[in-house]
Fold:
Amino acid sequence: MTPQQIEQHDAESTDGQRMSLVERYRLQTWFLGIIAFAMVLFLLVQARFILISLVIAIILFSLTGEAISAFSRLRIGSWKITNWLASMAAFALIATVLLTLSAIVISQVNTVVTTTLTYTDQAIAAIARLAGWVSPEAQATVEASIRSIEVSGYVSTLAGQASNLLSATTLVILFVGFLFAERLWFNAKLENLIGDKAQARRVGRIIHSIVRRVNHYLLVKTGVSVATGAAVYVLMLGFGLDFAGPMAILTFILNYIPSVGSIIATILLALVALIQVNEPATALLVFVIAGMIQFVLGSVIDPMLMGRALRVSSFGIIVSLSFWGAVWGIPGMFLAVPIMVATMIVCSHIPAARPVAVLLSREGLPEIEVEGA
Structure:
Protein backbone atom coordinates (compact mmCIF):
# COMPACT_ATOMS: atom_id res chain seq x y z
CA MET A 1 0.00 0.00 0.00
CA THR A 2 1.43 3.37 -1.01
CA PRO A 3 1.82 6.27 1.46
CA GLN A 4 -0.95 8.17 -0.35
CA GLN A 5 -3.32 5.22 0.07
CA ILE A 6 -2.42 4.93 3.74
CA GLU A 7 -3.16 8.64 4.31
CA GLN A 8 -6.46 8.35 2.44
CA HIS A 9 -7.43 5.30 4.51
CA ASP A 10 -6.57 7.10 7.76
CA ALA A 11 -8.61 10.17 6.68
CA GLU A 12 -11.60 8.02 5.83
CA SER A 13 -11.33 6.22 9.19
CA THR A 14 -11.17 9.56 11.02
CA ASP A 15 -14.21 10.88 9.11
CA GLY A 16 -16.10 7.67 9.88
CA GLN A 17 -15.30 7.95 13.58
CA ARG A 18 -16.35 11.60 13.58
CA MET A 19 -19.67 10.79 11.92
CA SER A 20 -20.18 7.95 14.37
CA LEU A 21 -19.63 10.31 17.31
CA VAL A 22 -22.06 12.87 15.83
CA GLU A 23 -24.74 10.22 15.33
CA ARG A 24 -24.19 8.92 18.85
CA TYR A 25 -24.46 12.46 20.25
CA ARG A 26 -27.72 13.05 18.38
CA LEU A 27 -29.12 9.75 19.61
CA GLN A 28 -28.17 10.59 23.20
CA THR A 29 -29.75 14.03 22.85
CA TRP A 30 -33.03 12.57 21.60
CA PHE A 31 -32.98 9.92 24.31
CA LEU A 32 -32.38 12.49 27.07
CA GLY A 33 -35.08 14.72 25.59
CA ILE A 34 -37.60 11.88 25.72
CA ILE A 35 -36.66 11.13 29.33
CA ALA A 36 -36.96 14.83 30.29
CA PHE A 37 -40.37 15.10 28.59
CA ALA A 38 -41.59 11.98 30.41
CA MET A 39 -40.42 13.37 33.76
CA VAL A 40 -42.06 16.74 33.14
CA LEU A 41 -45.29 15.03 32.09
CA PHE A 42 -45.20 12.88 35.23
CA LEU A 43 -44.73 15.95 37.44
CA LEU A 44 -47.52 17.81 35.64
CA VAL A 45 -49.93 14.96 36.34
CA GLN A 46 -48.85 14.28 39.92
CA ALA A 47 -48.83 17.94 40.99
CA ARG A 48 -51.88 18.93 38.95
CA PHE A 49 -53.88 20.39 41.86
CA ILE A 50 -51.07 22.73 42.96
CA LEU A 51 -49.99 23.63 39.41
CA ILE A 52 -53.53 24.41 38.24
CA SER A 53 -54.06 26.65 41.26
CA LEU A 54 -50.71 28.36 40.61
CA VAL A 55 -51.48 29.02 36.93
CA ILE A 56 -54.90 30.46 37.82
CA ALA A 57 -53.29 32.64 40.48
CA ILE A 58 -50.70 33.95 37.99
CA ILE A 59 -53.47 34.79 35.50
CA LEU A 60 -55.51 36.63 38.14
CA PHE A 61 -52.40 38.45 39.32
CA SER A 62 -51.52 39.53 35.78
CA LEU A 63 -55.08 40.73 35.17
CA THR A 64 -54.79 43.26 38.00
CA GLY A 65 -51.14 44.24 37.47
CA GLU A 66 -51.85 47.02 34.96
CA ALA A 67 -54.75 48.34 37.03
CA ILE A 68 -52.56 48.52 40.14
CA SER A 69 -49.87 50.45 38.25
CA ALA A 70 -52.49 52.89 36.94
CA PHE A 71 -54.04 53.47 40.39
CA SER A 72 -50.64 53.93 42.00
CA ARG A 73 -50.04 56.92 39.70
CA LEU A 74 -53.26 58.66 40.70
CA ARG A 75 -53.32 61.62 43.07
CA ILE A 76 -56.28 62.83 45.09
CA GLY A 77 -55.25 66.34 46.06
CA SER A 78 -52.03 66.00 48.03
CA TRP A 79 -52.71 62.35 48.81
CA LYS A 80 -51.27 59.66 46.55
CA ILE A 81 -52.47 56.07 46.33
CA THR A 82 -49.42 53.99 47.16
CA ASN A 83 -48.51 50.81 45.32
CA TRP A 84 -48.89 48.86 48.56
CA LEU A 85 -52.42 50.16 49.15
CA ALA A 86 -53.49 49.45 45.56
CA SER A 87 -52.07 45.93 45.83
CA MET A 88 -53.96 45.27 49.07
CA ALA A 89 -57.19 46.54 47.55
CA ALA A 90 -56.71 44.33 44.47
CA PHE A 91 -55.96 41.30 46.62
CA ALA A 92 -59.06 41.90 48.75
CA LEU A 93 -61.18 42.28 45.61
CA ILE A 94 -59.83 39.05 44.09
CA ALA A 95 -60.39 37.11 47.33
CA THR A 96 -63.94 38.44 47.67
CA VAL A 97 -64.85 37.66 44.06
CA LEU A 98 -63.38 34.14 44.20
CA LEU A 99 -65.10 33.26 47.46
CA THR A 100 -68.40 34.69 46.20
CA LEU A 101 -68.21 32.76 42.93
CA SER A 102 -67.31 29.57 44.81
CA ALA A 103 -70.30 30.01 47.12
CA ILE A 104 -72.61 30.58 44.14
CA VAL A 105 -71.33 27.51 42.30
CA ILE A 106 -71.60 25.30 45.41
CA SER A 107 -75.15 26.51 46.10
CA GLN A 108 -76.19 25.85 42.51
CA VAL A 109 -74.62 22.39 42.59
CA ASN A 110 -76.51 21.63 45.79
CA THR A 111 -79.71 22.78 44.09
CA VAL A 112 -79.06 20.47 41.16
CA VAL A 113 -78.19 17.55 43.46
CA THR A 114 -81.37 17.92 45.52
CA THR A 115 -83.66 18.12 42.49
CA THR A 116 -81.90 15.82 40.01
CA LEU A 117 -83.24 12.60 41.52
CA THR A 118 -86.82 13.81 41.01
CA TYR A 119 -86.14 14.13 37.27
CA THR A 120 -84.39 10.77 36.93
CA ASP A 121 -87.34 8.86 35.49
CA GLN A 122 -88.22 11.72 33.17
CA ALA A 123 -84.64 11.93 31.92
CA ILE A 124 -84.51 8.19 31.21
CA ALA A 125 -87.81 8.32 29.34
CA ALA A 126 -86.76 11.36 27.29
CA ILE A 127 -83.42 9.86 26.23
CA ALA A 128 -85.10 6.55 25.43
CA ARG A 129 -87.61 8.37 23.21
CA LEU A 130 -84.75 9.82 21.21
CA ALA A 131 -83.42 6.30 20.63
CA GLY A 132 -86.95 5.23 19.73
CA TRP A 133 -86.69 7.23 16.51
CA VAL A 134 -84.28 4.52 15.35
CA SER A 135 -86.38 1.50 16.39
CA PRO A 136 -88.48 0.27 19.34
CA GLU A 137 -85.76 -2.26 20.14
CA ALA A 138 -83.17 0.52 20.41
CA GLN A 139 -85.47 2.44 22.76
CA ALA A 140 -85.84 -0.58 25.05
CA THR A 141 -82.10 -1.27 24.99
CA VAL A 142 -81.14 2.33 25.77
CA GLU A 143 -83.68 2.56 28.59
CA ALA A 144 -82.43 -0.67 30.17
CA SER A 145 -78.82 0.49 29.87
CA ILE A 146 -79.49 3.86 31.49
CA ARG A 147 -81.45 2.32 34.37
CA SER A 148 -78.48 0.12 35.15
CA ILE A 149 -76.40 3.23 35.89
CA GLU A 150 -76.16 4.28 39.54
CA VAL A 151 -77.24 7.90 39.20
CA SER A 152 -77.05 8.53 42.93
CA GLY A 153 -73.35 7.61 42.90
CA TYR A 154 -72.56 10.15 40.21
CA VAL A 155 -74.60 12.78 42.03
CA SER A 156 -72.64 12.14 45.22
CA THR A 157 -69.38 12.44 43.26
CA LEU A 158 -70.55 15.78 41.84
CA ALA A 159 -71.29 17.06 45.32
CA GLY A 160 -67.84 15.94 46.49
CA GLN A 161 -66.14 17.73 43.59
CA ALA A 162 -68.06 20.90 44.44
CA SER A 163 -66.78 20.75 48.01
CA ASN A 164 -63.18 20.54 46.70
CA LEU A 165 -63.76 23.85 44.93
CA LEU A 166 -63.47 25.73 48.21
CA SER A 167 -60.06 24.16 48.91
CA ALA A 168 -58.83 25.11 45.44
CA THR A 169 -60.14 28.66 45.87
CA THR A 170 -58.31 29.04 49.17
CA LEU A 171 -55.06 27.83 47.60
CA VAL A 172 -55.45 30.25 44.67
CA ILE A 173 -56.02 33.15 47.08
CA LEU A 174 -52.86 32.22 48.99
CA PHE A 175 -50.81 32.08 45.78
CA VAL A 176 -52.18 35.46 44.68
CA GLY A 177 -51.29 36.96 48.05
CA PHE A 178 -47.66 35.77 47.80
CA LEU A 179 -47.43 37.05 44.22
CA PHE A 180 -48.59 40.50 45.33
CA ALA A 181 -46.03 40.42 48.15
CA GLU A 182 -43.24 39.74 45.60
CA ARG A 183 -44.54 42.19 42.99
CA LEU A 184 -42.39 45.18 43.98
CA TRP A 185 -39.12 43.23 43.63
CA PHE A 186 -39.92 41.32 40.46
CA ASN A 187 -37.93 43.57 38.09
CA ALA A 188 -34.92 43.65 40.41
CA LYS A 189 -34.97 39.85 40.76
CA LEU A 190 -35.27 39.42 36.99
CA GLU A 191 -32.28 41.70 36.37
CA ASN A 192 -30.14 39.99 39.01
CA LEU A 193 -31.13 36.57 37.74
CA ILE A 194 -30.16 37.30 34.13
CA GLY A 195 -27.20 39.51 34.94
CA ASP A 196 -27.66 41.73 31.88
CA LYS A 197 -29.88 44.81 31.98
CA ALA A 198 -30.55 44.80 28.23
CA GLN A 199 -31.45 41.11 28.24
CA ALA A 200 -33.59 41.62 31.36
CA ARG A 201 -35.53 44.40 29.62
CA ARG A 202 -36.04 42.13 26.60
CA VAL A 203 -37.40 39.34 28.81
CA GLY A 204 -39.59 41.88 30.57
CA ARG A 205 -41.06 42.98 27.21
CA ILE A 206 -41.78 39.35 26.33
CA ILE A 207 -43.56 38.83 29.66
CA HIS A 208 -45.49 42.06 29.16
CA SER A 209 -46.56 40.91 25.69
CA ILE A 210 -47.78 37.59 27.09
CA VAL A 211 -49.68 39.32 29.89
CA ARG A 212 -51.26 41.85 27.52
CA ARG A 213 -52.49 39.23 25.06
CA VAL A 214 -53.75 36.79 27.67
CA ASN A 215 -55.50 39.59 29.56
CA HIS A 216 -57.22 40.82 26.40
CA TYR A 217 -58.31 37.29 25.55
CA LEU A 218 -59.69 36.63 29.05
CA LEU A 219 -61.49 39.97 29.29
CA VAL A 220 -63.19 39.51 25.92
CA LYS A 221 -63.99 35.88 26.68
CA THR A 222 -65.43 36.80 30.06
CA GLY A 223 -67.64 39.52 28.59
CA VAL A 224 -68.95 37.23 25.85
CA SER A 225 -69.49 34.39 28.33
CA VAL A 226 -71.42 36.65 30.70
CA ALA A 227 -73.65 37.81 27.84
CA THR A 228 -74.19 34.21 26.71
CA GLY A 229 -75.01 33.01 30.21
CA ALA A 230 -77.46 35.88 30.72
CA ALA A 231 -79.16 35.10 27.40
CA VAL A 232 -79.49 31.42 28.36
CA TYR A 233 -80.96 32.44 31.73
CA VAL A 234 -83.58 34.62 30.04
CA LEU A 235 -84.30 31.86 27.48
CA MET A 236 -84.98 29.26 30.17
CA LEU A 237 -87.15 31.64 32.17
CA GLY A 238 -89.09 32.48 29.02
CA PHE A 239 -89.92 28.80 28.48
CA GLY A 240 -90.68 28.28 32.19
CA LEU A 241 -87.86 25.74 32.66
CA ASP A 242 -86.15 24.84 35.91
CA PHE A 243 -82.38 25.08 36.48
CA ALA A 244 -82.15 28.48 34.78
CA GLY A 245 -79.41 29.58 37.18
CA PRO A 246 -77.29 26.40 37.02
CA MET A 247 -77.54 26.24 33.22
CA ALA A 248 -76.55 29.90 32.89
CA ILE A 249 -73.50 29.31 35.11
CA LEU A 250 -72.63 26.12 33.22
CA THR A 251 -72.88 27.95 29.89
CA PHE A 252 -70.69 30.75 31.23
CA ILE A 253 -68.03 28.25 32.32
CA LEU A 254 -68.13 26.06 29.21
CA ASN A 255 -67.76 29.08 26.92
CA TYR A 256 -64.14 29.37 28.06
CA ILE A 257 -63.43 26.11 26.20
CA PRO A 258 -62.99 27.16 22.54
CA SER A 259 -65.20 25.50 19.91
CA VAL A 260 -66.17 22.48 22.02
CA GLY A 261 -67.60 24.27 25.06
CA SER A 262 -70.40 26.12 23.30
CA ILE A 263 -71.51 22.94 21.50
CA ILE A 264 -71.66 20.98 24.74
CA ALA A 265 -73.56 23.78 26.49
CA THR A 266 -76.16 23.95 23.71
CA ILE A 267 -76.71 20.19 23.68
CA LEU A 268 -77.05 20.05 27.46
CA LEU A 269 -79.55 22.90 27.36
CA ALA A 270 -81.66 21.04 24.79
CA LEU A 271 -81.56 17.85 26.88
CA VAL A 272 -82.65 19.71 30.01
CA ALA A 273 -85.55 21.22 28.05
CA LEU A 274 -86.53 17.83 26.64
CA ILE A 275 -86.50 16.21 30.07
CA GLN A 276 -88.75 18.87 31.58
CA VAL A 277 -91.33 19.52 28.85
CA ASN A 278 -91.46 16.05 27.24
CA GLU A 279 -92.12 17.72 23.88
CA PRO A 280 -89.45 17.28 21.18
CA ALA A 281 -90.71 20.35 19.29
CA THR A 282 -90.19 22.64 22.30
CA ALA A 283 -86.78 21.14 23.01
CA LEU A 284 -85.83 21.61 19.36
CA LEU A 285 -86.92 25.26 19.52
CA VAL A 286 -84.81 25.80 22.64
CA PHE A 287 -81.87 24.13 20.88
CA VAL A 288 -82.23 26.36 17.80
CA ILE A 289 -82.50 29.58 19.83
CA ALA A 290 -79.55 28.63 22.04
CA GLY A 291 -77.54 27.73 18.94
CA MET A 292 -78.32 31.12 17.40
CA ILE A 293 -77.23 32.85 20.60
CA GLN A 294 -73.97 30.91 20.63
CA PHE A 295 -73.35 31.61 16.95
CA VAL A 296 -73.96 35.36 17.15
CA LEU A 297 -71.97 35.91 20.33
CA GLY A 298 -69.27 33.29 19.76
CA SER A 299 -68.73 33.41 16.00
CA VAL A 300 -69.53 37.07 15.22
CA ILE A 301 -69.12 39.27 18.30
CA ASP A 302 -66.22 37.35 19.85
CA PRO A 303 -63.88 37.52 16.80
CA MET A 304 -64.71 41.22 16.30
CA LEU A 305 -63.75 42.06 19.88
CA MET A 306 -60.78 39.71 19.94
CA GLY A 307 -59.13 41.39 16.96
CA ARG A 308 -55.46 40.46 16.58
CA ALA A 309 -55.05 39.28 20.16
CA LEU A 310 -55.58 35.62 19.38
CA ARG A 311 -54.20 34.93 15.92
CA VAL A 312 -53.41 31.32 16.70
CA SER A 313 -53.92 28.19 14.65
CA SER A 314 -57.31 26.51 15.02
CA PHE A 315 -55.66 23.12 14.71
CA GLY A 316 -53.18 24.18 17.39
CA ILE A 317 -56.08 25.06 19.70
CA ILE A 318 -57.58 21.59 19.24
CA VAL A 319 -54.21 19.93 19.91
CA SER A 320 -53.67 22.13 22.98
CA LEU A 321 -57.17 21.31 24.27
CA SER A 322 -56.52 17.59 23.81
CA PHE A 323 -53.10 17.66 25.49
CA TRP A 324 -53.97 19.78 28.51
CA GLY A 325 -57.34 18.05 28.84
CA ALA A 326 -55.52 14.71 29.07
CA VAL A 327 -52.96 16.08 31.55
CA TRP A 328 -55.09 18.32 33.79
CA GLY A 329 -58.64 17.31 32.90
CA ILE A 330 -61.36 19.94 32.50
CA PRO A 331 -59.33 22.73 34.21
CA GLY A 332 -56.58 22.07 31.67
CA MET A 333 -59.02 22.69 28.82
CA PHE A 334 -59.86 26.11 30.30
CA LEU A 335 -56.16 27.00 30.56
CA ALA A 336 -55.14 25.51 27.19
CA VAL A 337 -55.47 28.70 25.13
CA PRO A 338 -53.63 31.06 27.54
CA ILE A 339 -50.80 28.51 27.83
CA MET A 340 -50.70 28.16 24.04
CA VAL A 341 -50.53 31.95 23.53
CA ALA A 342 -47.67 32.22 26.05
CA THR A 343 -45.81 29.34 24.39
CA MET A 344 -46.16 30.91 20.95
CA ILE A 345 -44.83 34.30 22.10
CA VAL A 346 -41.87 32.78 23.94
CA CYS A 347 -40.95 30.50 21.03
CA SER A 348 -41.12 33.43 18.59
CA HIS A 349 -38.20 35.05 20.46
CA ILE A 350 -36.05 31.91 20.56
CA PRO A 351 -34.40 31.15 17.16
CA ALA A 352 -34.20 27.40 17.80
CA ALA A 353 -37.90 27.25 18.79
CA ARG A 354 -39.17 29.61 16.13
CA PRO A 355 -40.67 26.79 13.99
CA VAL A 356 -42.97 25.99 16.92
CA ALA A 357 -44.21 29.61 16.98
CA VAL A 358 -44.80 29.52 13.22
CA LEU A 359 -46.85 26.34 13.53
CA LEU A 360 -48.92 27.74 16.42
CA SER A 361 -49.69 31.05 14.69
CA ARG A 362 -52.60 31.32 12.28
CA GLU A 363 -50.79 32.92 9.31
CA GLY A 364 -47.32 31.67 10.23
CA LEU A 365 -46.26 35.22 11.25
CA PRO A 366 -45.65 35.20 15.03
CA GLU A 367 -43.67 38.49 14.87
CA ILE A 368 -46.85 40.39 13.96
CA GLU A 369 -48.69 38.83 16.86
CA VAL A 370 -46.01 39.89 19.33
CA GLU A 371 -45.04 43.33 18.13
CA GLY A 372 -48.07 44.61 16.30
CA ALA A 373 -50.78 43.85 18.83
Observations:
- Residues 368-373 have pLDDT under 50 and may be disordered.
- The chain is about 85% helix and 0% strand.
- Residues 3-46 form the longest helix (44 residues).
